[in-house]
Design a protein that fits this description.
With 146 residues, this protein is mainly alpha-helical. The chain is 61% helix and 7% strand.
Length: 146
């Protein structure tokens, strides 16, 4: 099986070379902005103070970041229904979409074109085989949810 692993490794590198994203970062957001968006996607709504504490940043810095993200429609502030003095920051569907788009390693347009050129049965078989390969990985490896 070492030969199969070696061949897969080479094909994986070739796949990356052929299909990697060529459009660069789409959003132009800073690393700090991405950190806030990612944090909100993992924790759900939090106050600016809670986010600042979790991210180990000054509350004023996180507040400025949230204001910028809010201006881009990627987050929104909502009053706490139990305590109107508190405001929570929520990631919007546009914010979730921006995170997903930026996380992409491969160009979906390139992959779509290639899959459309393949016979449907081969495309289905390829995807099923890759799912089985990922499922066969040791449980100690981190998996990204689909």
């Amino acid at each position: 099986m070492t030969g199969s692993a070696s061949e897969f490794e080479q094909l994986f590198r070739d796949t990356y070379r052929v299909f990697h994203r060529r459009d660069g970062r789409r959003s132009g957001l800073t690393g700090a902005s991405w950190a806030v968006l990612t944090h909100l996607s993992l924790t759900g709504p939090v106050t600016v103070g809670e986010a600042a504490q979790h991210l180990d940043r000054a509350q004023s810095v996180v507040s400025d970041i949230v204001t910028q993200l809010e201006g881009k429609g990627l987050v929104e502030r909502r009053a706490d229904s139990a305590d109107r003095r508190r405001t929570h920051v929520w990631i919007t569907p546009e914010g979730v979409d921006a995170l997903r788009a930026d996380e992409r390693v491969l160009g979906l347009d390139l992959l779509t074109d290639a899959f459309e050129r393949m016979p449907a049965a081969e495309a289905t078989s390829l995807l099923a085989s890759l799912r089985r390969l990922v499922d066969a990985a040791p449980a100690t490896h981190e998996r990204t949810p689909s």
